[in-house]
Amino acid sequence: MPWLLLAAAIASEVLATTALKLSDGFAGKGWTVVVVIGYIASFVLLARALKLHMEVGVAYAVWAGAGTAAIAVIGALFLGEAMNLAKAGGILLIIGGVVLLNLAGSH
């Protein structure tokens, strides 16, 4: 159950961050509402996952790392942002770091 809450928190954060880009500096009112609701939902879901005895270091690393990687990919695929070898390598390093934290946290 805490992992499902964490996945929902990540999805909410990614939605909010994507909407932040689309809000045009909060000029787009609809996207601004999505930003606010998405970030509130993300923090509430993250807090609930932590309440179910998930380790804070692991939860935050997964939340931040997965969100960062997802936003980088979304930016490249849908928002016209550049993707190069260095960025792709950085994404792989983030994923590797999160996996390592999870493995170390279970022992």
From TrEMBL:
TM segment ranges: 26-46, 58-79, 85-104
Cellular compartments annotated: Cell membrane
Main subcellular location: membrane
Membrane topology: Multi-pass membrane protein
Keywords carried by this UniProt record: Cell membrane, Membrane, Transmembrane, Transmembrane helix, Transport
Highest taxon above the source species: Bacteria
Cell wall biogenesis/degradation recorded as keyword: no
Listed InterPro entries: EmrE-like, Small_drug/metabolite_transptr, Small_multidrug_res
Keyword match Transmembrane helix: yes
Chain segments annotated as coiled-coil in the UniProt record: none
A Pfam family of this chain: Multi_Drug_Res
Family: Belongs to the drug/metabolite transporter (DMT) superfamily. Small multidrug resistance (SMR) (TC 2.A.7.1) family.
PANTHER family: MULTIDRUG TRANSPORTER EMRE (PTHR30561:SF1), SMR FAMILY PROTON-DEPENDENT DRUG EFFLUX TRANSPORTER SUGE (PTHR30561)
Protein name: DMT family transporter
Organism: Sphaerisporangium corydalis
